[in-house]
Amino acid sequence: MLPLILPPGNNRLTLGDGSSMIINPGGSLVGGSCNASERIYIGTNLLASCNGGAGADFSFYDLMNFGGTGSLTSNSPVCTGNTLNLFATPPPNGTYTYSFLGSGLPGGGTTYLASPSYSLTAPASAGSYTYQVKMKSSLPGNPVVIAEITVVVNSGLATATPVTTLTQPTCTLATGTITITSPTGAGMTYSINGLTYTNTTGIFSGVASGTYSVTAKNSSGCISPAASVTITGQPTDIWNGTSWSTGLPPTSSQIAVFAGTYSSTGDITACSLEINPGVAVTMNSGHTLTIVNAVAVSGGGSLTFEDGASLLQTNDASVNTGNISYKRKTTALRQYDYTYWSSPVAAATLSQLATNSLFYSFNTSGNTYVYQTGATVMTPGIGYLGRAPGNLTYSPTQIVETIFTGVPNNGVINVPVIKTAVPSYNLIGNPYPSAIDIDVFITANTAVMTGTAYFWTHTTPITSNQYTINDYAKYNLTGMVGTGIAAPSGGAVPTGKVAAGQGFFIEANTSLANGTYSATFTNAARLAGNNTQFFKNGHASATATTISEGLERHRIWLSLNSADGAYNQMLIGYVEGATNDFDSVFDSKMIQVGSPVSIYTKVGTHDLSIQGKSLPFSETDSIPIAYSTTVNGELSINLDNFDGLFDTQNIYLLDKTTNIVQDLKAAAYTFVTTAGTFENRFELRFTDEAFNVTNPPLVKDDVKIISTGHQLQVICSATPMAQVEVFDILGKLLFSQKGLNTNLFQTNTLHAATQIVLVKISFDNQDSVTKKIAIQ
Questions:
Q1: Could you tell me which of 329, 339, 290 has the C-alpha nearest to residue 308?
Q2: Which end of the chain is more exposed for a tag (fewer CB within 10 A), N or C?
Q3: Is pLDDT above 80 for 495?
Q4: Measured CA angle at 739 (ends 561, 709), to 5 deg
Q5: CA neighbor of 635 nearest in space, from 671, 684, 676, 600
Q6: What would you measure as the largest C-alpha separation in the chain, in angstroms?
Q7: Measured in Å, how far apart are the chain's first and last C-alpha atoms?
Q8: Are strands 359-363 and 384-387 parallel, antiparallel or unpaired?
């Protein structure tokens, strides 16, 4: 602020009414006369006012020390009866106390307060009012500077106190909403802090928790009385180590906070989960922790899931923080067994696997397994192989436990699907710490895959470092076929509920051009618990929990078995939505992996382990049943299971080689075969009416002879044998057995030197076949 400069030699300041004041060289008023209503200004800033005579309480010297004059503001205009707020802004130099003067203020000018603001009820009469504030400085002598303001007071209040509705914070939204439902009208504005009136809608969203003063202002500037409202915080339920703060376990609308050690006694559901530092939480086997949003485990805290427990999340966008420990136990393993794995947590290495002997990934382009080190980080949604620990015993079998440690996977997870030459199999896996419904995954990804998931298992022990029988359990929307023993997917027959940590194969859609595509996992496929294995009734269920269970299905499970344990299963189902052509979601192709027995049907060029057929069913249908085997001898075809209309429908097997019809509900059908592939021998029928099948003429190739340890095994699958005779090359009879009626015969030990012999097989119809073989 510049000092007031008088003309040279003139120390008199003339006032507006002609009166004057004498100003000494220091700037003080020392003489002259002025009226009490007269004031001295520089611009619009009040410098001093007369006190009815000479000697005002102001000096220009003091003004220069202040560095300015300060100001007074208000919330004018206001209405009569409303609150008038005065706000003082002092000069920049020094600290100040304040004394407010004007209409409606008690005393004034003598009592100095620390606060630069003052609130009072506006005068009861409309008009203009002038208010002052004296600001006393802490500078030497406590000089005082004065500021003033003229306010406008209008007549009347805006309305009665505002009426509001509140939307409190929820599980998914941390802020609330205040909605003013009255007063409303043209020119109305609203405030929740009593200061700014820029809101014209009456809706305040994104409001943090706290207490707010809600007022309305009309077009005349009149402000309503205030309504006090409170926005609460997000609802929480805190476990202190003994009990919940609400008295009950949390719900899906509450944040579950663990401030004390916890071991589950059942399922838990919450909006989100927070585990405090140093707190240990355990979800026990069979229990599901269902969280809508995120899981946050603070440093030093722990969240452990025992084998069979689940973490189920529903919001794909939620981002988890902090590590969990997720335990998975294998099925019973022998030394050199393999398990197919997939990680339910981020950044897990293969070295975490309990099957930590050798590790492999699968290369689709080369159709080969690729060795990986234990340091390899498991990509979410990708499958890996782990061989049983080297120190595992061959007998008895043992169960080993893997503990996955990391941030739990959640939300949208994309995995590459590579299409090369047909077929193109890709090893993927469940990426979540919960089971998934494979129906949901299949139907969401039919554009890039056929509709079958393949689960590895092996049905007999490894012998001499070789698997004697290898197979895949299979699942699609028609149903499932197993391998005879429990697969890691949860049983001998997959249920369609793929457990956490489980890897499995899918096949790229055969109609795609060669290239890399993407399959997608989402939380929509995740399930609570692991579910119970059972076969549903054939009719669509009103309480179906999966896509396939909602379809009308009538199914037959057949298996091909040998006496020494060879096993292979197939499924035929009449299914809603299926056709009699190849359907990717209802038909599953057989994978040839060296199994000694396979049973299947054919659709076009496809060999099917699962065949879906169109509805309606007709009992006049006949379905060719094919098989292949490396066995020379007896095999059996069994009716493993059936459902739907087949609960009451007859099921027959026709052997067109022997012209035998077997009621499979009464007993399995046992027959003799040689090694090979046979696609025209059997038919599945549903009526026992005449089949009009005649025995074909016997040919030499119908008979097979196997020589082992000076014994001969003779097989004739087409018709029973009546007599077997063995001659040496000179025609001498070495062995003879009459009165036979069998398709399979084995001689006693032949007491003859190693040589070529002739074997004559005779039949009741007088036919005979002679074959040459070496005995040794």
A1: 329
A2: C
A3: no
A4: 55
A5: 671
A6: 165
A7: 127
A8: antiparallel
Mean pLDDT calculated for residue range 101-121: 84
172 — pLDDT class (breaks 50, 70, 90) = confident
The pLDDT-based confidence of 40 (bands split at 50, 70, 90) is: very low
Return d(Cα 177, Cα 172) in angstroms, integer: 14
Please determine, for residue 531, whether its predicted confidence score (pLDDT) is greater than 50: no
Cis peptide before 77 (omega within 30 of 0): yes
Give, as one character, the DSSP assignment of residue 537: P
Say what the pLDDT of residue 700 is.
66
In the β-sheet with 29-32, what is the strand arrangement from edge to edge? 12-14, 20-23, 29-32
The conformational region for residue 133 under phi > 0 = left, psi -120 to 50 = alpha, else beta, is beta
Q: How many CB atoms lie within 10 A of CB 763?
A: 18
| Residue length of the chain | 776
Q: Is 733 strand, coil or helix?
A: strand
Provide the whole-model pTM.
Answer: 0.70
In whole angstroms, give the CA distance from residue 532 to residue 491. 10
Res 536 pLDDT > 70: no
Strand-pairing partners, residue 291, are: 270, 313
In DSSP notation, 103-128 reads TT-SS-SS--BS-SEEEEEPPSS-EE
> How many Cβ atoms sit within 10 Å of the Cβ of residue 663?
13
Single-letter code of the amino acid located at 357? S
| Residue among 328, 337, 592 at smallest CA distance from 454 | 592
